[in-house]
Write a structure and sequence with these properties.
With about 230 residues, this protein is an alpha+beta fold. It contains 10 helices and 6 strands; from the N terminus they run ββββαααβαβαααααα. The strands form 2 sheets. Strands 1, 2, 3 and 4 form a 4-stranded antiparallel sheet that branches. A two-stranded parallel ribbon has the order 5-6. The protein starts with 7 loop residues before the first strand and ends with a helix.
Amino acid sequence: MKRFYKDVSVSQDSDAFAIALDGRPMKTPQRNALAVPYAGLAEAIAAEWAAQGEDILPVTMPLTALAQGALDQVENERDRIVSRIAAFADSDMLYYRADPNQQALIDHQAEHWDPLLDWARQNYDVSFNLIYGIRYEAQPAATIENLGAVVDGQDDFVVAAMLSLVGLTGSLIATLALVEQTRDAETLWPLVNLEELWQEQQWGRDDQAVATRNLKQAEFEAATRFLNLSRS
């Protein structure tokens, strides 16, 4: 789509900050007002639109897409989306350790992943079953219930960010560490890619895998930024 506007602005209306193009309020795909409750987020979204050249490239506007998701999807389908995020309480990648014959990798996982699980145990009063090798084992019912309640307690914009983050990381615990601001994106990204990075160290670099990981990292950083802007 060709750029059809000159100016981008933000205005406050009650408790929301609305983005406008040439003075006309923007709408989401489902025709909701593109208005967010955080001034910093509104300014960042406006900056994405202001930075567009002759052509509008949606892929360069991740904050806009996440805000639209919060306003269109989370607001209307909150229970389904919360349940989708909370399902990771039973399948978090941090639970799954290498096969018992790979002790060096098991030790590496324990060194880097166990501190996150220890933090979650203390913070949310939960326990975990660690799983060695390729098999499924259910997590304690109290763990699933407690972590699900934590997800449900977040506002729509945080939920929108969490939906993206759990999909990119495979870890609800890592996502909650970002929500609670106990870890930053720079620290967590290598942790949620630990096995892939380990394999690279053992067998060498796969350029296609690295390119895919870099694309996912850009999405991860955008979702983290959206999360951080959805606080003030």
